[in-house]
Design goal:
Elements lengths: L1 E4 L9 E7 L6 E2 L4 E6 L4 E5 L4 E6 L6 E3 L3 E6 H9 L3 H6 L1 H6 L9 H22 L18 H9 L18 H13 L36 H16 L2 E9 L1 H16 L6 H15 L5 E4 L4 E4 L5 E3 L1 E3 L2 E3 L2 E2 L7 H16 L13 E5 L18 E5 L3 E7 L2 E15 L5 H16 L2 H6 L1
Parallel strand pairs: 12-16, 16-17
Antiparallel strand pairs: 1-8, 2-4, 2-7, 3-6, 4-5, 6-8, 9-19, 10-11, 12-15, 13-14, 17-19, 18-19
Helix pairs in contact: 9-10, 9-11
Length: about 450
C-alpha cells in the first residue's frame, strides 16, 4: 500500500480546505492525475497525484482542513504496476514485487512526523499569532512578495507557528535563517503576558468582545468563513491599522476615451480581449507610476528604508463568488492596451474559475478597484499593503459641463485615490491624480509620452 499526502502547496502555504475530492474508492489513479482540489489562503489548487494504483481508502471529505503532509488516500501499488504495464493479468501478477518495493522509499518524504508536529504546535499558535499580526501582513488574496528563505527555514517557521513573511532576515538581501525565525519567535513570546494576553500598545492588543446570542431574537444560520474571506479580512484589517489612509477624489471627462474605446473594441475582441475602461486605466497607471516613483514604492519601517520598485505591475480587483481576488498584471509599462486587455480578461476568468496561482496574485506596484459596473459615485478603497496607493473607480455618467462658453453633455468618471500618508503628501497625491485625469481626458498623451 502507498499513501498520497498533501505536498508543499506554495510559498508560506501550510494548509488548505478540501474543496472537492476528484477520485473515489476503486478508481485507478495515474501519476500527475488531479485527485483533489484544495482551497488555500491564496487560491484554489488542483493537486496532482504523486502515487499510482487503485484507491483503497479515502481519509478526507469536502470541507476538511488538511495540512501539508496529511494523508489523503491510500492506493494498492500492485494495481498501479499492472495499470502501468497494461498487458493483462499475467503481467499484473508479476508486477507487485517491484511495486511492493516502492513503498519502502516512501517514508523518505516523512511528512507524517511533520503533520504531528503541526498538531502539537497548533495550540500555542493561537496566542502567538495575535501579537505577530502587527509586524507582518497575513498571506492574503493580495500581493505579497515571497520571503527569501529556504524550504528548511519555512518548515521550521510553520512548525513553531511563525509567519515567515513577518521575519526580518539578517542574511544577504534580507535572506532569512533559522536563527532569524527563532529570534522572531522569542520576541513574540516576550510580548505575551503571563496570562497569555498580548502586551499592551499593539494593534492586536485590543480585547475581543464576546458576541451576543443572536438566537434569542430569532432564527440564525452560521457558516464558516472561507479561507479567502478570512485572509482578506485579516489582510485588510492589518492594512487599515498599519497605513494612515487619506483619500482624495476627482472626476475625469471620459467622452473622448469612450469614443476611442467604442471605435477599437472590435479590434481588441478579435485579439482575444475586451477593451474595457479598466484595461485602459491600467495603462494610464503604468505610465503614472513611472512619472511618480514614490507611488511605486513600499515602506520598510524595521530598516527605516523606502523600497523603490523598478518594475511596474498593476493589481486589478476581481469580484468572485468566493470574495475579492487581486490578480497582478506584470510589466504593464512594456505592454500596449490590447495586450493588457487580453491578459486582464484571461486573469479575471482564471480568478472566477479558481485557477489563479499564488504567483499571479503577487508582486503588485499599485492596485485598481473598479466598481463602476455595479454602481455608486465615490468610495474610499483600502490601500493593499505593502503597496502605498490604490485607485478606486466608480460608475460614470453623463452630466452638463461648462465648455467653450456653454453647458454641454459630457461623460464623466468619478475617481478615488487612497494613499499611505507616511510616504505620500497630499500635494503629491493630488498631482498624481490630476495627471491621471489629464491622461484620461487626453488619450493621445499616453502615446506622446509612452
Amino acid at each position: 500500500m502507498a499513501e498520497f499526502k498533501v505536498p508543499e502547496l506554495g510559498e508560506n502555504v501550510a494548509s488548505g480546505d478540501v474543496a472537492k475530492v476528484l477520485v473515489s474508492v476503486g478508481d485507478t489513479v495515474k501519476m500527475e492525475q488531479p485527485v483533489i482540489e484544495l482551497e488555500t489562503d491564496k487560491a484554489t489548487i488542483e493537486v496532482p497525484s504523486s502515487v499510482a494504483g487503485v484507491v483503497k481508502e479515502i481519509k478526507v471529505k469536502k470541507g476538511d482542513k488538511v495540512q501539508v503532509g496529511a494523508v489523503i488516500f491510500t492506493v494498492e501499488d500492485g494495481a498501479a504496476a499492472s495499470g502501468a504495464s497494461g498487458n493483462g493479468a499475467g503481467k499484473a501478477a508479476a508486477a507487485p514485487p517491484p511495486a511492493e518495493a516502492k513503498p519502502e522509499p516512501k517514508p523518505e518524504p516523512k511528512p507524517e512526523p511533520k503533520a504531528e508536529a503541526k498538531v502539537v504546535s497548533m495550540p500555542p499558535r493561537q496566542p502567538v499569532e495575535t501579537p505577530a499580526a502587527p509586524p507582518a501582513a497575513p498571506a492574503a488574496a493580495s500581493n505579497l512578495m515571497p520571503a527569501a528563505a529556504s524550504p528548511a527555514v519555512r518548515r521550521l517557521a510553520r512548525e513553531i507557528g511563525v509567519d515567515i513573511n513577518a521575519v526580518v532576515g539578517s542574511g544577504p538581501a534580507g535572506r532569512i535563517s533559522q536563527e532569524d525565525v527563532k529570534e522572531h519567535a522569542r520576541r513574540i513570546l516576550s510580548s505575551v503576558g503571563s496570562a497569555g494576553a498580548p502586551a499592551a500598545g499593539g494593534v492586536a492588543a485590543r480585547a475581543s468582545r464576546p458576541m451576543p446570542d443572536f438566537a434569542k431574537w430569532g432564527e440564525v444560520q452560521r457558516e464558516a468563513w472561507t479561507n479567502i474571506r478570512r485572509v482578506t479580512s485579516e489582510h485588510l484589517s492589518y492594512s487599515w491599522n498599519t497605513v494612515p489612509h487619506v483619500t482624495q477624489f476627482d472626476k475625469a471627462d471620459v467622452t473622448a476615451l469612450e469614443e476611442l474605446r467604442k471605435k477599437y473594441k472590435d479590434q481588441v475582441v478579435k485579439a482575444g480581449g475586451n477593451l474595457t475602461v479598466t484595461a485602459m486605466l491600467v495603462k494610464v497607471l503604468a505610465t503614472a507610476l513611472q512619472k511618480f516613483p514614490q507611488f511605486n514604492a513600499s515602506i520598510d519601517p524595521d530598516r527605516g528604508e523606502i523600497i523603490y520598485k523598478k518594475y511596474v505591475n498593476v493589481g486589478v480587483a476581481v469580484d468572485t463568488d468566493r470574495g475579492l481576488l487581486v490578480p497582478v498584471l506584470k510589466d504593464v509599462n512594456h505592454k500596449n492596451i490590447t495586450q493588457i486587455a487580453v491578459e486582464l480578461q484571461q486573469l479575471a476568468e482564471k480568478a472566477r474559475d479558481r485557477k489563479l496561482t499564488v504567483e499571479e496574485m503577487s508582486g503588485g506596484s499599485m492596485s485598481l478597484s473598479n466598481l463602476g459596473g455595479i454602481g455608486g459615485t465615490y468610495f474610499t478603497p483600502i490601500v493593499n499593503w505593502p503597496e502605498v496607493a490604490i485607485l478606486g473607480v466608480s460608475r460614470g455618467g453623463t452630466e452638463p459641463v461648462w465648455k467653450d462658453g456653454q453647458f454641454v453633455p459630457r461623460q464623466t468618471l468619478p475617481l478615488s485615490l487612497s494613499y499611505d500618508h507616511r510616504l505620500i503628501d497630499g500635494a503629491d497625491a493630488i498631482r498624481f491624480l490630476r495627471w491621471v485625469v489629464e491622461a484620461i481626458e487626453q488619450p493621445f498623451l499616453l502615446s506622446l509620452i509612452g
